[in-house]
Amino acid sequence: MMWQEVILALVTAIIGAVSTVWAYWAGRKKRHIEHVKDTSDAIRELNETITIQADRNGDLNSKVMSLQEEIASLKSALLDTTLKLKEKDAKLDEVLRNQETLMAQLNYYRKAAPHIKPPRGAGC
């Protein structure tokens, strides 16, 4: 009878050990599958985030290009305006030189012929 109890205890221990190992291996596979699924979900979310960021980057790049074109256009307009101002400044300088020459001539003729009076309306 004693041998039966020992054998029963031994068989029960072996069955328990096998059951434990089996549960470990079965659980390990399940945990591995869950880990792979979690990793896959994380990669999918990361891909979505990357796609959204790439779209935003593309939009910002388009805006930057548009602003660069606008800056180039404004620089060109500024250059044209500057050139026109330089031309007008040169013409104004010429007019001022002509005015000085005419004033000098007028003063010369006033000194040479002080008895001649300028016509009415000539505010000199």
Put the structure in a nutshell:
It is built from 1 helix and no strands. It is mostly helical and 124 residues long.
Architecture overview:
It contains 1 helix and no strands. The chain is mainly α and 124 residues long. The relative contact order is 0.03. The mean pLDDT is 89. The protein is rod-shaped.
Give average pLDDT, whole number.
89
Helix content: over 70%
Q: Which structural class do the helices and strands define? A: mainly alpha
Low-confidence stretches: none
* Cα-atom radius of gyration: 50 Å
Largest sheet: none
* Individual helix count: 1
Strand content: under 5%
Order of helices and strands, N to C? H
Spatial separation of the terminal alpha carbons: 150 Å
Specify the overall morphology: rod-shaped
* Number of beta-strand segments: 0
